[in-house]
């Protein structure tokens, strides 16, 4: 499967100029940004949203590895990708 999205890795980058977080690729180009407003949307929520968006390429890679694993998804190399994607999406908490 050929990816049609901006290649990863992506990283969450806080904004220096306002209440939002950017998601950037390895070249520092903005891929997306997380901005939330309302009573329950503080900076911590925005950071968590951006962290989840940034993990998208890793999650896709892990899912493709599971799909293509000939011996099932419990192989160590595949499971490592899954764990890494979860940790990235949750900010290191799995």
For the residues shown, what is the average pLDDT? 77
Report how far apart the termini are. Answer: 28 Å
Radius of gyration: 15 Å
| Apparent shape | elongated
The strands making up the biggest β-sheet line up spatially as 1-2-3
Query: What is the N-to-C order of secondary-structure elements (H for helix, E for strand)?
Result: EEEHHH
Unreliable runs, pLDDT <50, ≥5 residues?
A: none
DSSP E strands, number:
3
Number of helical regions: 3
| Biggest sheet layout | 3 strands, antiparallel
How many structurally independent domains? Answer: 2
Helix content: 40-55%
Identify the notable features of this structure and list them briefly.
94 residues, alpha+beta, 2 domains, 3-stranded antiparallel β-sheet
Fold blueprint:
Blueprint: E1 10-14, E2 21-25, E3 30-34, H1 43-54, H2 56-68, H3 76-89
Antiparallel strand pairs: 1-2, 2-3
Helix pairs in contact: 2-3
Q: Can you walk me through this structure?
A:
With 94 residues, the chain is of the alpha+beta class. It folds into two domains: 46 residues, no CATH class; 40 residues, no CATH class. 41% of the residues lie in helices and 16% in strands. The chain has three helices and three strands. A three-stranded antiparallel beta sheet has the order 1-2-3. A hairpin with a 6-residue loop joins β1 and β2. α2 packs antiparallel against α3. The radius of gyration is 15 Å and the shape is elongated. The model has no long low-confidence stretch (mean pLDDT 77).
């Amino acid at each position: 499967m050929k990816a049609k999205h901006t290649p990863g890795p992506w990283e969450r980058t806080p904004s220096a100029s306002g209440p939002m977080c950017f998601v950037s690729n390895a070249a520092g180009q903005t891929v997306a940004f997380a901005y939330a407003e309302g009573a329950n949307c503080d900076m911590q929520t925005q950071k968590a949203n951006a962290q989840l968006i940034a993990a998208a390429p890793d999650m896709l890679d892990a899912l493709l590895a599971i799909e293509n694993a000939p011996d099932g998804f419990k192989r160590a190399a595949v499971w490592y990708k899954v764990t890494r994607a979860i940790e990235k999406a949750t900010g290191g908490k799995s």
